[in-house]
Amino acid sequence: MEFHYDRDRVYAQPATQRVYNQEPYLTRLEATLLYLENDLAVFDRTIFYAESGGQVCDVGAIVSAAGGTPCPVVDVQHKLGHKLYIKREGVNVPLVAVETRIVHRLAYAPDLQPGDRVIMQIDWPRRYAIMRHHTLAHFLFSAVNRYFSAGIGIKGCTIDAQKAVFSLDKKLSEDDFCAIQAHTRDLLAQAHPLAVESAPETDSLFYWRYGETLIPCGGTHVQALSEVSDAAIFFHKKSTGRERSRIAIALQPLV
After folding, report:
1. 1 in any annotated domain
2. Is 11 helix (H, G, I), strand (E, B) or coil?
3. What would the DSSP string read from start to end of 159-228?
4. 29: helix, coil or strand?
5. Is the same domain home to 78 and 169?
């Protein structure tokens, strides 16, 4: 669904502070409403992850800090801002969207005014499932690259509460599929600490580190390996064309 808003008025607002980057386990936050047009709202800061990098957005609710009925948040998107090019030796860093205004789509137009304080509450079970699958996505990504070296292209990814999926420009054989699973499990078994390194150029990007693996990212992840490695992990592959396929990793069986 498209977002229809007054571009000039939204651009006049300061860039939204992405609190979820620094505190991914925070489930509740007080913020100030800066802009409201029908069911679209911009706040000074947010814990709602805005859809990007293949990761779906958070959902949840907002309520006036003075009390009242919670209003569901059903979609969250980055708008405006600009792209930043970052160069780091040995790392392929994609263009980064910075200084964006994060627009929240609400289930209906709430009885609020700019300047009002609100309490944000994310759907934590859903967010936590996304965090776990985003972390697993990095292990699967690393395993695919380790197995194929430079011989494969990753055309896209989707990360949600049920799975992490990569679209590949190669049809996977059963041997390929088994080898990627083995590589993924081997990486998890190495039991390195999970770490996040900040990027000096912006707080919209950081580097996810696991042993010698370093991946630029802006998503939400778990902090301890045990949050994914102690669980049952399932894999799934599907051919999507003559020379295309998808491979998925999940914490529950996929049909």
Report:
1. no
2. helix
3. E-SS-EEEEESSPPPHHHHHHHHHHHHHHHHT-PPEEEEEETTEEEEEEEEETTEEEEE-S---SSTHHH
4. strand
5. no
Residues 147 and 111 occupy one common structural domain: no
- Give the predicted TM-score (pTM) of the model: 0.94
Q: Euclidean distance between the first and final Cα of the chain, in Å?
A: 28
180-204 pLDDT per residue, tens: 999 999 999 999 999 999 999 998 9
Cβ count near 148 (within 10 Å):
17
What HEC string does 91-150 produce?
ECCCCEEECCEEEEEECCCCCCCCCCEEEEEECHHHHHHHHHHHHHHHHHHHHHHHHHCC
Residue type for position 118: V
Cα–Cα distance measured from residue 104 to residue 61, given in angstroms and rounded to the nearest whole number = 10
Question: 109 and 133: one domain?
Answer: no
For residues 158 and 54, the answer to whether their CB atoms sit within 8 Å is yes
| Amino acid identity for residue 139 in this structure | F
